[in-house]
Write a structure and sequence with these properties.
Elements (H helix, E strand, L loop, with lengths): L33 H8 L1 H39 L2 H4 L1 E6 L7 H7 L2 H14 L12 E6 L3 E2 L14 E7 L6 E6 L14 E7 H7 L6 E4 L7 E11 L5 H4 L8 E3 L11 E8 L14 E7 L11 H13 L1 H9 L5 E3 L2 H44 L1 H9 L4 H30 L5 H26 L19 H24 L5 H6 L9 H7 L1 H16 L1 H12 L5 H10 L6 H36 L3 E4 L8 H6 L6 E13 L6 E6 L1 H11 L27 E2 L3 E2 L12 E5 L1 H7 L4 E4 L5 E9 L12 E4 L12 E5 L5 H12 L10 E4 H7 L4 H45 L4 H34 L6 H4 L18 H29 L2 H5 L5
Parallel strand pairs: 4-10, 6-8, 15-21, 16-20, 18-20
Antiparallel strand pairs: 1-11, 1-12, 2-4, 2-11, 3-4, 5-8, 6-10, 7-8, 9-10, 13-22, 13-23, 14-15, 14-19, 14-22, 16-17, 18-21, 19-20
Length: 988
């Protein structure tokens, strides 16, 4: 029934039938509208809610678009980096059969017929795989190379040069004339044509001494040799485009070395002659086995990561499925399709399967904190308006009507704010599919709208003006809450066990194969991704239950102390409202997520640094194939930022005894090399153990000789020495297992021999990466073998430009291209591991998610403090009338806030540490830290470990913010005076 707004003065509607119109309600315009009144009464709260919803909706809507942007960019970069020879769809068909009449054979290779087949092929390729027509082409070429009879062509070993004839479309569009003109035909070309025109690229002309007007003869079949006249020299417009790189021979000639049985290797040149497409029939008259081909280059800009499974299916269909049938119907019954695009897609899918679960962990963590903050905002608003809502219920407001009004009131603020946040996300990240962003923003808006009404619905089911105390000291957890907490505990335990046993990417491959690659994974994967969040939630609920116990223990000794500040602060801290559960939940979840996320980012950075050091051995590495100048170490040492230079003499082909296997050998200066090994943490050892004995001294033999392994353990004893002491050697575990501790000889590349005996065993060493190495004292090598070939440079800020200039000056090479020595810096080597936008984008999103979660934690703390600010101000005002000084007031508020802040900080540190320790066995950071799609496997692996800064800094920030806010409130309240708070009355 409608509410009467007449005699009792209640706001609302007239009763149906009271105005002579039964069943209809007429709004009473004498009473101000509810929403307008509430917004005018508390504009600050409405603005704060609007800002919170706007920010949260913006972040929620931007997240899926940001993920989609970097995933698509990573896929496109992977396809581009794989180069056109691997990613192009190479459709090829043999020459028309000899049983076909010659005119029909010639017609099948003419441009008209080839072009029609090309158009049909474009229609065969199914979405989402798209072809770039500008980089695709077709033509006819000979499979077998043809020997050229001209003796003026270069012949390095006396073998005649060979030519490949290609009549490929689009030459004019993809090249510019360097000399002469493009080839053309006169009349109709057939297999019996005696002479045709051709063009060559500038590189082919330069290396094969071809000029405009040159004539090259190639063999014919049942006819005279074919004369090919060069009419033009062309330069590719874009040498790296798919048109030229799919068949590199068209652009650049090759020096071929055929296999030989002993003797000196022989070589010959192989080049390409570019015919006019109209001259394609002439290839049928040569013994080169001409073949038709259509090169379809995928358009990288049309590839999207959410279509990855469909892309794989489209490629597989073209290679050996229904698509291949359509291809053969469009071209020839013997047509085949080959490409490595499926391998490129699989490599990218593997990388994404390792990166995506880590990002989902950050997303779930930040999302959980944001949800808690929204719920807390609704609960704090409901607590602030408890008296108002209880009075409305006491005056007859129905629970449904009250909930509807609160929902409408909140929706008026939240809906425009959510729309504004969505618009901001669309402008901030202008890439990606809109439905996911709209759904995320809508979910945030609905949650913000429902938080206050649902809390009011739960709190005011029973009509009452004054309720019982609701503080931690008096309220006991209900059975429902206990069951809910136990359920969360079971879920958290299951998530942790699943993550430890199968890792973050347990079923990612299956999800990709089943076409579910667009989601974060199955429900099980989502549970695994929520493991850090669940750990934080369980810790928060546990701490809330344990929170009153230490306060009770401290209250008794504090009561016996002089002064009432300590006892009063502990008493008030113990009577904190139950609503502190949500702020604590937000803080612990955010601190756990921040600690876990910070540890992930720190682990990624450490893994890249470690891998770079493993590859280079120092901050920079200068290496040459031959010996470096003797003055170069001093010149490099004087470069800016260089602190120490360690020369090495490396022989990669040292052969033990009479065997054919080789072992990399490095000659070093023991003192400097020992310092370097200790500084880098790569197999530190005492320098004296590696120094060569003076000439003429005897080696230790019998039971006295031992190889020290690891941190000093002894290895198997060797036997006697010789008159000349063998060189002590530091070896890898693999080499030590093969050769033991017996002295053995090594034949070096300069023909000299050296005898070594393994005395030290280490798994890693700076001089040589890998698992096989020997390190000896350089003083024990011959004069030639001891000359340095490598310099390991250490320094805090080594300048790459300055180092390269110093090396170039010392070796006599050009400064822009250090020809004789290769210079590599650790910073450059580290940057090489961030090879894909997928990795860098995931890192940025992960860092942004951790920062957003920390921001929500701070916001939760501020909301809790602001909610209690009026009560604290009133308390200080009353206590000042009883003689409380300003300094005592500051101490009171700080001590009152300190237990909760300490609880949150200590709980956050312990929970973050426990989350990292529990989940580390199931987290592999190699994909996001070191993986390079399509490249060689990186050195080492990246494991998750605790990062002290990520553990302590957020917790200390929470502690300082809580105590600082309390002290600031006490200071501000003391400046304002106490009259206003005393007039406000007794606020319950």
């Amino acid at each position: 029934m409608g509410r009467d707004s007449g005699s009792d003065g209640r706001p609302g509607f007239r009763r149906p039938g009271s105005d002579g119109l039964p069943g209809f309600r007429r709004r009473d315009h004498s009473v101000a509208p509810w929403i307008r009144t509430r917004l005018r009464t508390a504009p600050g709260a409405a603005v704060a809610l609007a800002l919170l919803v706007t920010a949260t909706a913006c972040l929620a809507a931007a997240f899926p678009r940001a993920v989609e942007r970097y995933e698509d960019a990573g896929l496109r970069q992977a396809v581009v980096d794989a180069t056109a020879p691997r990613t192009s769809l190479q459709v090829s068909a043999p020459q028309p059969g000899t049983y076909i009449p010659q005119p029909e054979r010639e017609s099948a290779v003419r441009p008209d017929s080839m072009g029609k087949s090309y158009e049909r092929l474009l229609n065969v390729v199914e979405r989402p795989l798209a072809v770039d027509p500008a980089q695709s082409t077709y033509g006819v070429r000979n499979i077998n190379n043809l020997e050229a009879a001209e003796t003026w062509l270069p012949m390095p070993s006396g073998l005649p040069a060979q030519m490949s004839l290609a009549a490929q479309s689009g030459l004019a569009e993809h090249s510019r004339m360097s000399a002469g003109r493009l080839p053309r035909t006169e009349g109709t070309v057939s297999a019996a044509t005696r002479e045709v025109e051709a063009a060559v690229t500038t590189e082919t002309a330069k290396r094969l001494n071809i000029k405009v007007g040159s004539v090259i003869h190639v063999p014919g079949v049942q006819r005279d040799p074919l004369a090919v006249r060069i009419t033009g020299i062309v330069a590719p417009r874009d040498p790296e485009s798919a048109y030229w790189t799919t068949q590199p021979l068209l652009r650049t000639p090759s020096l071929i070395r055929p296999p030989t049985q002993g003797g000196e290797p022989e070589t010959y040149w192989l080049g390409a002659l570019l015919l006019s497409p109209d001259a394609a029939p002439v290839l049928l008259g040569t013994p080169g086995e001409p073949a038709r081909y259509w090169l379809l280059t995928p358009d990288p800009d049309a590839l999207t990561a959410h279509d990855l499974s469909r892309l794989g299916s489209a490629v597989a269909s073209l290679e050996s499925g229904p698509g291949l049938v359509k291809v053969r119907n469009s071209t020839d019954a013997d047509t085949g399709v080959s490409t490595d695009l499926d391998e490129v897609l699989a490599s990218y899918a593997e990388l994404r399967s390792g990166v995506r679960p880590l990002v989902s962990v950050a997303a779930f963590g930040t999302g959980a904190v944001a949800v808690v903050v929204l719920l807390m905002a609704g609960r704090l608003t409901a607590d602030r308006r408890r008296t108002e809502l209880a009075l409305l219920r006491a005056r007859g407001a129905s629970l449904r009507g009250l909930t509807r009004r609160l929902l409408t009131e909140t929706a008026v603020v939240a809906l425009p704010a959510g729309a504004l946040g969505l618009a901001g996300a669309l402008l901030l990240v202008p890439y990606g599919r809109a439905p996911y962003a709209v759904g995320a923003a809508l979910a945030v808006t609905l949650l913000a709208c429902a938080a206050l009404p649902l809390r009011a619905l739960a709190a005011h089911r029973v009509v009452g003006v004054h309720g019982a105390r609701e503080d931690l000291a008096s309220v006991r957890p209900s059975r429902r809450r206990t069951i809910a907490e136990l359920t969360l505990l079971v879920l958290a335990s299951a998530a942790v066990l699943a993550l430890r046993s199968r890792g973050t990417s347990g079923t990612s491959d299956e999800a990709l194969d089943s076409g579910a690659s667009d989601n974060l994974g199955s429900s099980g994967d989502q549970l695994v991704a929520m493991a850090p969040v669940l750990i934080g939630v369980i810790a928060a609920l546990l701490l809330v239950r344990l929170y009153p116990l230490p306060l009770r223990w401290l209250a008794r000794p504090a009561g016996r102390m002089r002064g009432a500040i300590g006892h009063l602060s502990l008493a008030r801290a113990g009577r904190t409202s139950v609503s502190t559960v949500l702020p604590l939940l937000a803080l612990l979840t955010a601190l756990t997520t921040a600690a876990f996320g910070g540890s992930v980012l720190a682990g990624v950075a450490d893994a890249r640094d470690r891998a770079a050091v493993l590859n280079l051995g120092a901050d920079a590495r200068v290496e040459a194939e031959s010996a470096l100048p003797a003055t170069l170490p001093e010149r490099v040492r004087s470069a800016p930022g260089v602190q120490e230079v360690t020369p090495l003499s490396i022989a990669y082909e040292a052969k033990p005894g009479a065997g054919v296997e080789s072992v990399p050998l490095a000659g070093v200066d023991p003192e400097g090399y020992a310092r370097l090994a200790g500084r880098t943490g790569l197999g530190a050892f005492p320098a004296g153990e590696l120094k060569a004995s003076p000439v003429g001294s005897s080696a230790k033999s019998g039971d006295g000789s031992s190889a020290k392994s690891g941190d000093g353990g002894s290895a198997k004893s060797g036997e006697g020495g010789s008159a000349k002491a063998p060189l002590p050697a530091l070896a890898s575990s693999a080499v030590a297992d093969r050769y033991g501790t017996h002295p053995f000889s090594l034949r070096l590349s300069d023909g000299s021999d050296v005898t070594v005996r393994i005395t030290l065993v280490r798994d890693l060493t700076p001089a040589l990466p890998g698992t096989d190495f020997l390190i000896v004292d350089r003083a024990g090598l011959g004069t030639v073998a001891a000359r340095p070939t490598t310099l390991l440079v250490t320094g805090d800020h080594v300048s790459g430009d300055a180092l390269r200039k110093a090396v170039a000056a010392g070796t006599g090479a050009d400064a822009d291209a250090t020809a004789r020595a290769d210079v590599r810096l650790r910073s450059e080597e580290r940057a090489r591991y961030v090879d894909s936008p997928l990795q860098s984008g995931a890192e940025r999103v992960y860092a942004a998610a951790v920062a957003a979660g920390s921001g929500y934690a701070v916001l939760a703390l501020l909301l809790a403090l602001v909610r209690a600010a009026p009560e604290r101000a009133a308390l200080l005002a009353r206590l000042r009338t009883m003689g409380l000084t300003r300094s005592q007031g500051r101490r009171l508020l700080v001590l009152e806030a300190l237990p909760q802040a300490l609880l949150a900080a200590a709980g956050g540190i312990l929970t973050g540490w426990a989350a990292v320790r529990l989940l580390a066995p199931g987290i592999d950071l190699t994909s996001i830290a070191l993986a390079t799609p399509g490249g060689a496997p990186p050195t080492g692996t990246a494991a998750l470990h605790t990062d002290p800064a990520s553990l302590f800094l957020p917790a200390l920030t929470v502690l300082l913010l809580a105590t600082g806010t309390a002290a600031g409130q006490a200071w501000w309240t003391g400046r304002r005076g106490s009259v206003r708070e005393l007039r406000a009355g007794d606020s319950r």
